[in-house]
Amino acid sequence: MSKKYSTIHYHSYLKLDKILEAQQLRSVELGEPAHEEMLFIIIHQAYELWFKQIIHELQSILKMFREDSVDERNIGTAVARLGRISEILKLAVQQIRIMETMTPLDFLDFRGYLFPASGFQSFQFRMVEAMLGLSEQDRLTYSSGHYASVFPEDQQQVLADIYRSGTLFDAVESWLERTPFINYGEFDFLKQYEQAVRQMIEKEQEAIKVSVYLTEKEKIMRLAMLGNTDTYFQSVLSKDAHAALKANGKLRLSYDATVAALFINLYRDEPILHLPFRLLVNLMDIDELLTSWRQRHAQMVLRMLGRKMGTGGSSGHEYLQATAAKHHIFTDLHSVSTLLIPRSALPALPESLTKQLSFYFTQN
């Protein structure tokens, strides 16, 4: 019988002997068995398996987006795989609840045997961060060394190669920059958008001024908070303003990519933009879920260890909480919400462009 069609057993297919023999309790080896160490090991092994799956998905998505011209038929596949990553991260957050069935006293029974091992030494998680596009400049370190210094040279090289070959952030930025609809014939999107923004702000300013519920002091404060087109809207209305924000580290996406992301968000209801919009939403979901996981992890550490130092030498809870606040990747996509205007105020698209953004069978 051909090996291709030979039978296989569940046990051997999943290599269960290797997997189920991989829980070697250090407390047992040292002659002081701690019951809860089994849970601790399995939780972290499960995380590593899920990280492997995330890497598998990201590698396939990066392969699609690293081309000079992305095959639009692949966008749906990329959206589905990003959605899968989101579901895995949701599970990662929920998994912490299982860890918290172990009490702080139970953890202390074997924690002393773990030094200097630490979750910071998870190479696969560092790969996930790098592949998504976490900027090396934005990384917090818990020592004076480079974040990758805890890994052997071959793994350090893998991480360096990820940044060198281009991350998902880089690939999506390049894809956005090639959006063809920003300047279409006589339609100047930014000119039309600026006019709509001015009208929206004037309407809101007038509503504040005529309000009978606000004091004069409150009106002045709200008008100042509302701002005008010279405030954050300048990040898309002025290339120079965008460049200044980028130079100060307040923005990462290029000007063209930011304008494209805004266009996709505003005209998301156009058929051709459904999947691009979902792709951007999935990227924001992943970023948000990673932040949720970091925050939840930090809270668990505070519950388990209080203010104790981490086994790897970090400040423990304080360090983890700081990474949750700083280690964001797709912040610029979230910030697009600042630039949105009401759907009713959207500039009308030329009929010829509307046809381009529609499915073929709906054009007649």
TrEMBL record:
Pathway: Amino-acid degradation; L-tryptophan degradation via kynurenine pathway; L-kynurenine from L-tryptophan: step 1/2. Binds 1 heme group per subunit. Its EC number is 1.13.11.11. Its cofactor is heme. Pfam families: Trp_dioxygenase (PF03301). InterPro entries: Trp/Indoleamine_2_3_dOase-like, Trp_2_3_dOase. Heme binds at H297. Signal peptide: none annotated. The keyword Plastid does not apply. Keywords: Dioxygenase, Heme, Iron, Metal-binding, Oxidoreductase, Tryptophan catabolism. It catalyses: L-tryptophan + O2 = N-formyl-L-kynurenine. Substrate binds at F40, I41, I42, I43, H44, R111, T311. The keyword Methyltransferase does not apply. Heme-dependent dioxygenase that catalyzes the oxidative cleavage of the L-tryptophan (L-Trp) pyrrole ring and converts L-tryptophan to N-formyl-L-kynurenine. Catalyzes the oxidative cleavage of the indole moiety. Homotetramer. Belongs to the tryptophan 2,3-dioxygenase family. This is Tryptophan 2,3-dioxygenase. It comes from Agaribacillus aureus.
